[in-house]
Q: What sequence folds into this?
């Protein structure tokens, strides 16, 4: 798939932008802080229905618009897919409430028709590769969970809905736990929320487990290609509540190696999860928070039996992230049957020549890639000849003649 | 709204109006100046109505609906089925159900729904009172008619836990497609709920 045109209103640096985008590689050239990353962010915003860079939607609103009485931000793109062309739109508006407060409201439309955010999934797929993605390997687990959620949210509407429901139930349960600690009250109020948490949480875990398993197949092969066959890499899912191996059984080593192949008895998972929550309940009331569930999941990068997050060199971590994003590309192709739009922000500068060439070669097979860079010299002439170059300067974009 | 041009008695009225739901500062000012503009008769009638609202109304000691008599006319009505109790969130919901002309039982008003994030818990609602009613009275069936929102569903699920052990029949309002609606335009959640609660014919 590819993006044919992009329109931004009051998005980050952009006051107003109308841009036609060709197929093939596109190079965004410009100094720092001119709007290159924001452009990539805007495209990813349409794919996920939320910003991949911030958890606070209103941060994307153009700074100038903050002064308007009711600021808004609007992103629209025409997406050409194999069998159709669609216009996707996401708008964020600050709406006044009767009590004088304001509320952020996000609306999503496809071909002018309002839809739920979850139904945006599957209409535009992107692989976003940022310099700070190195933290995916060595940083805190919250980044890895956000990565998985953004990937799953692009493809599965059910995941978006179930995960939202899960988070909502957890935050309500946390508020109730704090209330029980301070003021007492009927602990039976926990049960309906726990039932909701159990049912949605198991689904979240199963989706994550599945995508990690599928990504691992690709990541292992790609990583070996990138390291000249020297090192394998796999992703290891460490669910906080393990949907396949309940913690107690796991500790006792009761389950055979092929545990993942067993058919899942969902009711048994619900029961095990319910029991796990019950076991922790006293501790949870004491701390005023839910301690069991996928909001505390972990995913590790394991290469040659070592956790790259702890023991990997910077170079190894960089290779791991590159392999991850390429695996993501393959996974999206396989799952959706179409090649996603590749968005690369300053990634080449950090790679050695061999990997840079490996990556540039690979772009030949992707329908559309948008690369942001401060330095055009990083790209060989042969590559630039078949590339559309756009200069980005203070939120304005001008085409550049290829030398 | 604290300019010297507006006397304090007017400012105070404007600010009071603005505390009402659905009324912003602009509407509040418009209402205040409308009352001021020679319509003293209307202002006094309004004042009287408000006084009456505060002085003459209270909650029915059985169903907690707003009433001037106790028990309220619905609880006192022997033609209604006193063994059938419909549980609702707000007194306004009672008006909607009465409008159907199809319900002949009595009510129980919770005065809200469980919402931990807004600090509303079981002890803040008239739940203990409902339980007491079930224990004491000859109640055949409880119909849970809380809103089909996450708070309403949560409240209903909690009530089931509290009431079922008392041996009373507990039912929930059916959920599904709006009458006169079009299947094509039904949202996925409503449609899947309608599928779940389909009926044998």
A:
């Amino acid at each position: 798939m590819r993006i044919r045109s992009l329109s931004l209103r009051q998005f980050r640096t952009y006051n107003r932008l109308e841009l036609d985008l060709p197929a093939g590689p596109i190079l965004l050239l410009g100094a720092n802080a001119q709007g290159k990353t924001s452009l990539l962010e805007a495209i990813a915003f349409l794919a996920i229905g939320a910003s991949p860079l911030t958890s606070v939607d209103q941060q994307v609103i153009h700074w100038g618009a903050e002064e308007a009485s009711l600021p808004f931000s609007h992103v629209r793109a025409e997406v050409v897919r194999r069998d159709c062309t669609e216009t996707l739109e996401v708008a964020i508006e600050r709406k006044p409430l009767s009590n004088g407060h304001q509320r952020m409201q996000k609306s999503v439309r496809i071909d002018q028709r309002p839809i739920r955010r979850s139904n945006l999934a599957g209409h535009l797929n992107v692989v976003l590769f940022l310099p700070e993605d190195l933290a995916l390997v060595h940083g805190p687990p919250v980044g890895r969970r956000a990565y998985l959620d953004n990937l799953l949210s692009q493809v599965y509407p059910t995941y978006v809905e179930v995960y939202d429901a899960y988070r909502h139930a957890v935050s309500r349960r946390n508020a109730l736990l704090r209330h029980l600690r301070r003021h007492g009250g009927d602990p039976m109020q926990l049960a309906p929320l726990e039932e909701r948490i159990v049912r949605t949480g198991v689904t979240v875990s199963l989706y994550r487990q599945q995508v990690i398993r599928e990504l691992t197949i690709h990541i292992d092969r790609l990583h070996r290609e990138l390291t000249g066959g020297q090192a394998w890499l796999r992703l290891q899912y460490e669910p906080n509540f393990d949907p396949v191996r309940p913690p107690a059984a796991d500790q006792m080593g009761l389950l055979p190696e092929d545990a993942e192949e067993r058919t899942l008895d969902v009711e048994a998972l619900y029961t095990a999860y319910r029991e796990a929550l019950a076991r922790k309940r006293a501790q949870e009331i004491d701390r005023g928070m839910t301690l069991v569930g996928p909001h505390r999941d972990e995913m590790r990068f394991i290469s040659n039996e070592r956790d790259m997050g702890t023991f990997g060199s910077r170079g190894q971590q960089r290779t791991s992230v590159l392999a991850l994003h390429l695996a993501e590309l393959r996974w999206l192709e396989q799952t959706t049957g179409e090649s996603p739009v590749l968005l690369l922000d300053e990634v080449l500068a950090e790679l050695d020549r061999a990997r840079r060439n490996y990556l540039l070669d690979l772009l030949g097979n992707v329908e559309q890639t948008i690369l942001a860079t401060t330095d055009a010299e990083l790209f060989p002439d042969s590559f630039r000849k078949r590339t559309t170059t756009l200069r980005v300067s203070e939120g304005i974009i001008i085409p550049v003649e290829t030398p | 709204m604290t300019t010297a041009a507006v006397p304090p008695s007017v400012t105070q009225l404007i600010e009071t109006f603005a505390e009402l739901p659905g009324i912003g500062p602009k509407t509040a000012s418009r209402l205040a100046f409308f009352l001021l503009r020679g319509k003293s008769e209307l202002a006094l009638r309004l004042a009287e109505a408000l006084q009456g609202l505060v002085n003459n109304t209270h909650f029915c000691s059985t169903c907690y609906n707003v009433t001037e008599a106790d028990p309220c006319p619905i609880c006192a009505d022997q033609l209604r089925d006193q063994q059938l109790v419909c549980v609702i969130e707000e007194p306004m919901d009672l008006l909607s159900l009465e409008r159907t002309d199809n319900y002949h039982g009595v009510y129980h008003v919770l005065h809200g729904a469980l919402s931990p994030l807004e600090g509303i818990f079981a002890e803040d609602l008239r739940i203990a009172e409902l339980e007491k009613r079930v224990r004491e009275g000859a109640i055949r069936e409880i119909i849970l008619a809380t809103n089909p929102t996450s708070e309403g569903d949560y409240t209903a699920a909690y009530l089931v836990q509290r009431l079922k052990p008392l041996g009373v029949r507990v039912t929930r309002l059916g959920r599904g497609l709006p009458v006169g609606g079009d299947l094509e335009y039904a949202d996925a959640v409503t449609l899947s709920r309608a599928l779940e609660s389909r009926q044998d014919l």
Summary: Chain A has two domains: 1-125+341-403, 139-337. Chain A is about 40% helix and 25% strand. Confidence is low (pLDDT under 50) at residues 246-261 of chain A. The radius of gyration of chain A is 23 Å.
